[in-house]
Write a structure and sequence with these properties.
With 138 residues, the chain is an alpha+beta fold. It has a single domain, classed as Pantoate--beta-alanine Ligase, Chain: A,domain 2. The protein contains two helices and four strands. It has a four-stranded antiparallel sheet. The radius of gyration is 32 Å and the shape is rod-shaped.
């Protein structure tokens, strides 16, 4: 019977062992929560960037396909309260003696901007299309 009593007395954990295990678990949980928070923040940034890139591609397709787009100039618009866009149209390279009706490349530089908390972010996009030099307005 003396042996059984000895086995039972040494089968449990000491207070020190429990404190050490609890401290290790606490550190692990804090590290895990910090990593999880960072991952969620990064996922939000990626989701916003993906949304804005899709908006920019759609807007660029609209601009490239628009026959009424000015030959040179700037257009801008608002998508929602925190997102907008600006587009600049200009000839890419003009030949030395260009005549009205000459076919050239037009550069369209689009910038979609959005507010990310207190930061302003931008997504630039560029495209080219073939256009004819317009006749001067009279």
């Amino acid at each position: 019977m003396n042996t059984q009593t000895k086995v039972r007395a040494t089968a449990g954990f000491t207070l020190l062992e429990i404190l050490v295990a609890t401290t290790i678990m606490g550190i692990a949980v804090v590290s895990l929560m910090s990593s999880l928070s960072t991952s969620m923040r990064n996922a939000t940034h990626i989701t916003q960037a993906d949304r804005v890139s899709q908006i920019a591609r759609n807007k660029m397709e609209e601009l490239v396909a628009d026959p009424g787009l000015p030959f040179q100039g700037t257009l801008q618009g608002q998508i929602d309260e925190s997102t907008g866009w600006t587009a600049q149209m200009s000839p890419f390279e003009m030949p030395p003696r260009v005549q009205p009706g000459t076919v050239i490349l037009q550069r369209i530089a689009l910038v979609v901007w959005w507010k990310n908390g207190s930061n302003d972010r931008q997504y630039p996009l560029e495209a080219y299309r073939i256009v004819s030099v317009p006749r001067p307005a009279q």
